[in-house]
Amino acid sequence: MSLENKVAIVTGAARGIGFAVAKRFVMDGAKVVICDVDDDAGESAADDLKTLGEATYIHANVAERLDVRNLVAETLNAYGEIDILVNNAGIVSGADFLDFEEDEFDRVLSVNLKGVFLCSQAVARHMVETVENGGAPGCIINMSSINAVLAIPTQLAYCVSKGGVSQLTKTAALSLAKHGIRVNAIGPGSIMTDMLSSVNDDPEAKQRLLSRTPMLRVGDPAEIAGVAAFLASEDASYVTGQTIIADGGRMPLNYTVEVPDEE
Asked: φ, ψ for residue 217 (rounded to 5)?
């Protein structure tokens, strides 16, 4: 098992991509801390994963420095080490550019970008100390998006935050490289999470989504988890500062594809 006895924190892991990553890590042998602000969903997710391996739920708002400090401390108390951090927690807020409220802009960036900074810095400080004491270097994986590059006019703050995550990934990777600590990101395209499930009931929306996806399907959270498992493993030991795009071919496309009619 490629992550056997590793300790991982996955933020925003109560559901969706975060839960899929946490599940894959547990199946690969890791001890996983699920971090979220939804206590009921977080506890339920941890209980589900305990049938497969070792998992713990810890409440933390990644936008709050004290919560992040407690998350790190509680993880170390429980498992004694942090080998992997996955910064997955994120929120969205939609409005046209001219109507977007300042408070909403701040709220989205505080979770999606500031939260990545706070968690990465806190965990990286511990990882550096581990290396200085003769231990193995860890790794950090950030959840970016194709919307770090592509824009949605009604998702100003989300797109800005994901662009920031990509640059934060590069900067942290360069800073931590001398310690052997790797920092990478994943840029998912259209993935079937709760936020996207409504397209199944809207043929026009589904047609529009598939027309920009050469593989003609929506991705599964487990496919993003597979990328995270690779980046967390020794197979990615020479990979740092990168964003791996998993989008079914959308980013290279400069036109739309023909979508067959459903039978």
From this structure: -160, 160
Domain that holds residue 48: 7-246
95 to each of 91, 98, 106, 164, how far by Cα in Å?
Answer: 14, 8, 14, 20
In terms of DSSP H, where are the helices of the chain?
16-27, 39-50, 65-79, 102-109, 115-132, 156-176, 203-211, 221-232
pLDDT digit string, tens, across residues 157-167 = 999 999 999 99
Please state, in angstroms and rounded to a whole number, the distance separating the CA atoms of residues 74 and 71. 5
What's the Cα-to-Cα distance from 73 to each of 76, 79, 111, rounded to whole Å? 5, 10, 20
pTM summary value: 0.96
Of 57, 79, 158, 238, the catalytic one is 158
**What's the distance, Cα to Cα, between the start and end of the chain in Å?**
41
Decide if 136 is inside a domain: yes
158 belongs to the catalytic site: yes
CATH code, 135? 3.40.50.720
Residue pLDDT, tens place only, 212-262: 999 999 999 999 999 999 999 999 999 999 999 999 999 999 888 888 877
